[in-house]
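Holo prediction — 2-phosphoglycolic acid.
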Amino acid sequence: MAAKIVAGNWKLNGSKVFVQQFFGELKQLIDPVQMDACIAVFPPAVYAAQVADLVGESGIVTGLQNIAAHHEGAYTGEVSAAMAQDAGCRMALVGHSERRTLFGETDEIIAAKVAQGIESGLTVVACVGETLEQRQQDSAAEVVESQLAGALKDVTSGQLPSVVVAYEPVWAIGTGETASPEQAQEIHALIRRWLKNQFGQAGADISLLYGGSVKPDNAKELFAQADIDGGLIGGASLQPQSFAAICNAVCSDG
Ligand code: PGA
């Protein structure tokens, strides 16, 4: 069975003081060790070591929002998966739609990042999702399948325990417009089928996260869908109260 995960993507937000206050509060609100879900936070890279130190043995996992497609060398400004691991990270997002559209990441670059992440011992969260235009043209399924094929092209069956997939319809990211539970479930079921066809049962056991304007008041209904194993949370992950409420919503007793 796929593990439940709630992951907070802070994007370009935060500071040393914010990190300190956020986890001070979050730790009062949830105890991930007691939860039947993995709770992860993805701060900007410069704060990753601070977050990893602060969360310590609390059960909260630290991740990077992006990793380099290369291991080391003359790549100014990049941070490698091995460095993320060294700084205390255990996960990394790869191919977020903002990376694809604002920073020109192609399927090829994303596949290289997935490989780097896995080789360095990280769990990679490969992000896929269609734009509004693609949905209106009825090509959401096709786009998502082609992004999956691109991102996971070099992944072997043995590496699947290190892979998570996040479905984030671009039209729902940061817009306040969430996919309905039925719309999200439809694509999640398609992703599960695709992974099963490709990799067999181990593919079907990959955790599938929904992302795009998940809030405390819609999380429970989304997470109740058969093929939604958790969420990738942007805006609502910046407030300990709302992030904690979403974390609780994924738990069986939440
Ligand atoms: P949002 O972002 O929750 O603010 O819509 C989700 C994401 O981009 O991961």
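READOUT: Residues 178 and 218 are 8 Å apart (CA to CA).
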